[in-house]
Amino acid sequence: MKIVYSDKKSGKTAQVEVPKDHEPMLLGKKIGETIDGGVVGMDGYKLQITGLSDTMGAPSRREVDGTRKVYMLIANGPGIVGAKKGKRMRRLIRGNTVSADTGQINTLIVEYGTKSAEELFPKKAKAESKEEK
Predict the structure, then answer these.
(1) What is the pLDDT tens value at each position of the chain, 133 positions in all?
(2) Which of 47, 58, 113, 124 has its CA 20 to 30 A from that of 107?
(3) Pairing state of beta strands 2-7 and 102-111?
């Protein structure tokens, strides 16, 4: 399971793998709830869950309760990209609760901890091959 956390102040986003022994702490949480950042090594931080997707890539929606999968007739929002006005599509949608089938949890930083932004969002190293040429 992965957690993607975003910082509105800096506009940066990063991804962290959740250790297997910490996954049970996340099960049962719903979209909109806050979780402790210590689960992924971000001590002192609070993260708000903004979205989920399962291991197959199906997005979750707030209005579908539980962990079930349903085919919904939807016009906009998660699961629909570039729909025209008045057009609705039937899409596979996951429920709003974290389960064992959840592959990714999207979060937003609500409270900041002791680590700085530079430590949380390390800069990507440039390829050494460019420097050699």
Answers:
(1) 999 988 888 888 888 889 899 899 999 999 999 999 888 888 889 999 999 999 998 999 998 999 999 998 888 888 788 778 888 888 899 999 999 999 999 999 999 888 776 677 666 654 444 455 5
(2) 124
(3) parallel
Instruction: Say if pTM beats, i.e. exceeds, 0.85.
Output: no
CA distance 124 to 132: 18
Single-letter amino acid, residue 101: D
Cβ-contact 14, 41 below 8 angstroms: no
- 129 burial via Cβ count (<10 Å: 0-12, 13-18, 19+): exposed
Are 37 and 69 contacting, i.e. CB atoms less than 8 angstroms apart?
Answer: no
Cα–Cα distance measured from residue 31 to residue 4, given in angstroms and rounded to the nearest whole number: 14
